Amino acid sequence: MFELFSPSAGMFTAPVEGVYYFGFSAFANGRNSMGVHLRKNGQQIVASYDYNSTHKDVNGANRAILQLEKGDQVYITLWGGLHIFDSYNSVSTFSGFLLFPV
């Protein structure tokens, strides 16, 4: 079976050439600042960053529409030294879907 999204790697692999929508939200709490990149095959596409100067919760989100070849990989990464937090409320998310094949 071909796995489209690998939860252990946190990576989506395109099963077919097409145009895809991706989005993410990220949350950090306490004294942590938040910074996340959306990457395609290692290249940064979009990012979200929030500096936490008030020691309260911070959050951000971003979206992208990408044309992918079969086998291209899309995933999110943290900026060095920054954080995200998640809980049973699913406050940090990563999702995507095929808009149409090419």
From TrEMBL:
Keyword flag Lipid metabolism: no
InterPro entries: C1q_dom (IPR001073), Cerebellin_Synaptic_Org (IPR050822), Tumour_necrosis_fac-like_dom (IPR008983)
All residue ranges annotated as the C1q domain in the record: 1-102
Any single GO CC term annotated in Swiss-Prot or TrEMBL for this entry: extracellular region
This protein's UniProt keywords: Secreted, Signal
A Pfam family matched in the record: C1q
SMART domains in the cross-refs: C1Q
Keyword Phosphoprotein assigned: no
Highest taxon in the source lineage: Eukaryota
Alphabetized Gene3D superfamilies for the sequence: 2.60.120.40
Compartments in which it is found: Secreted
Protein name from the UniProt record: C1q domain-containing protein
Species name: Pygocentrus nattereri (Red-bellied piranha)
